[in-house]
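In the design runs reported in the main text, the only information available to the sequence generator was the tokenized backbone. The following block is the verbatim input for one such run; it is reproduced so that readers can re-run the procedure and compare outputs position by position.
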């Protein structure tokens, strides 16, 4: 007995060392174009019944630049960012600090004061790093739409022009360029054909995310003194740190891929995703990177450098609904549209669909059974997207109604008994006749695959009973009929017998 008790003791787990590097994503300060749009919103009553669209468009076209620098307020924001960020990096980050910068003028102008301040901090230099900072100018990290005027492409700055901006910081020769044309005299957008399409921006975001993970992995080296487990280390050693200076909308594209962990997918081509991240000008999002695509989002859209200023409210720009963020949320007709009916095998069913189905049943059905879904391929009823699948037994087929990536209803059919079960639809989708579409899909499936077998359902209540009767179900004669009991649907084949 003593030996048995001894063998049942739980062996304490050894704490796994989780080395990470610090990552900061920062949106650029207010640009000349941000100021143009803000002024246009005020002059032409943006978002009100009196909105003058023609006047707004003319003003924007007359004043917008393809690649603007910072506004006067933006320059003040950049200085405030430097006053906060430079001493923090000097105290907490190892040398060099790695900067990944968009090739657009406003991002470079935003971070120049910080790099200049770090470069002047001789105490932070080491014999192994002659400069306190290293810069990567990444041509994939530009803002959505690229560099254009009235949809006509502009080349943007080339490598020589960007190097000249960084030369006074004594970083000449240290900056590197990624995603630029091979000819260093060509601008980073030299191959652009106009304003970048959203579908192309999404593809570019995937490319940049892959590059970013590789870049971070290359810095997460095992034997480096500045790469360690910050969760358990008690000393005050400086840590390897990467600072990225980018753009509000495109940062959202990248952060969604970070959060999704290689599982991000575009729901509707050319249409914004259902959710995104919002940043003020110079807003800071802090993450920890643990290697091979593993991130922790520690803080998002922080502005400590602006919050304590006397004119804080005026200095916090670009992060509110009045700045137009709601216009990158997809319109109703995109997320409420119907799809088509399909059937798929189980090993092809996306996990996110299965998770939503199980949550739907758990939330709206008291005794919902858990089933593994299997997809079978074939088109059924028009205007609904459904996934038919075998469940826990080979006789069960599950149907899933979706709008894009969102599951809005499901049902299960047992082929051996003919029973239709677990019919559930999100309340917000019931007016769209999703339930009827699910049942019609089951009817079509039975007609094609079950020799027209009968469909039997046990309504939960009077409303459910009325719903099925309106879809052609009638009282089961064997059950006695009446206002309670089973309902059945006879296919055209059975009705003719």
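Verbatim output:
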């Amino acid at each position: 007995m003593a030996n048995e008790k001894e063998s049942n003791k739980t062996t304490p787990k050894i704490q796994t060392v989780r080395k990470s590097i610090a990552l900061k994503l920062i949106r650029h300060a207010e640009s000349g174009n941000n100021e143009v749009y803000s002024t246009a919103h005020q002059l032409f009553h943006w978002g009100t019944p009196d909105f003058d669209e023609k006047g707004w468009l003319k003003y924007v076209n007359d004043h917008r630049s393809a690649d603007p620098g910072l506004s006067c307020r933006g320059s003040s924001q950049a200085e405030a960012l430097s006053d906060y960020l430079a001493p923090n990096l000097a105290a907490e980050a190892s040398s060099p600090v790695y900067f990944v910068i968009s090739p657009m003028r406003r991002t470079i102008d935003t971070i120049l004061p910080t790099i200049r301040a770090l470069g002047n901090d001789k105490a932070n230099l080491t014999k192994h790093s002659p400069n306190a900072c290293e810069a990567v100018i990444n041509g994939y990290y530009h803002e959505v739409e690229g560099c254009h005027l009235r949809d006509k492409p502009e080349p943007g700055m080339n490598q020589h022009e960007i190097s000249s901006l960084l030369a006074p910081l004594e970083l000449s020769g240290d900056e590197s360029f990624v995603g630029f044309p091979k000819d260093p005299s060509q601008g980073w957008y030299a191959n652009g054909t106009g304003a970048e399409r959203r579908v192309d921006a999404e593809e570019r975001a995937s490319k940049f995310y892959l590059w970013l993970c590789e870049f971070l992995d290359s810095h997460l080296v095992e034997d480096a003194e500045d790469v360690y487990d910050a969760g358990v280390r008690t000393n005050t050693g400086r840590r390897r740190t990467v600072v990225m200076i980018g753009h509000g909308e495109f940062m959202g594209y990248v952060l969604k891929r970070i959060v999704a962990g290689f599982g991000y997918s575009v729901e509707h081509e050319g249409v914004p995703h259902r959710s995104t991240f919002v940043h003020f000008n110079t807003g800071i999002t802090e993450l920890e990177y643990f290697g091979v695509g593993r991130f922790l989002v520690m803080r998002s859209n922080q502005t400590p450098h602006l919050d304590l200023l006397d004119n804080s409210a005026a200095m916090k720009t670009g992060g509110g609904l009045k700045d137009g963020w709601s216009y990158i949320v997809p319109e109703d007709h995109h997320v409420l549209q119907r799809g088509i009916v399909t059937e798929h095998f189980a090993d092809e069913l996306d996990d996110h669909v299965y998770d939503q189905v199980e949550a739907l049943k758990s939330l709206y059905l008291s005794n919902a059974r858990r089933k593994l879904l299997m997809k079978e391929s074939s088109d059924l009823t028009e205007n609904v997207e459904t996934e038919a699948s075998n469940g826990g037994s080979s006789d069960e087929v599950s149907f899933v109604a979706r709008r894009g990536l969102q599951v809005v209803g499901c049902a299960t059919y047992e082929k051996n008994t003919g029973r239709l079960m677990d019919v559930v639809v999100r309340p917000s989708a019931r007016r769209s006749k999703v339930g009827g579409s699910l049942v019609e899909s089951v009817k079509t499936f039975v007609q094609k695959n079950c020799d027209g077998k009968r469909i039997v359902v046990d309504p939960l209540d009077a409303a459910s009973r009325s719903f099925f009767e309106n879809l052609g179900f009638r009282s089961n004669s064997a059950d006695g009929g009446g206002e309670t009991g089973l309902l059945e649907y006879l296919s055209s084949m059975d009705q003719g017998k």
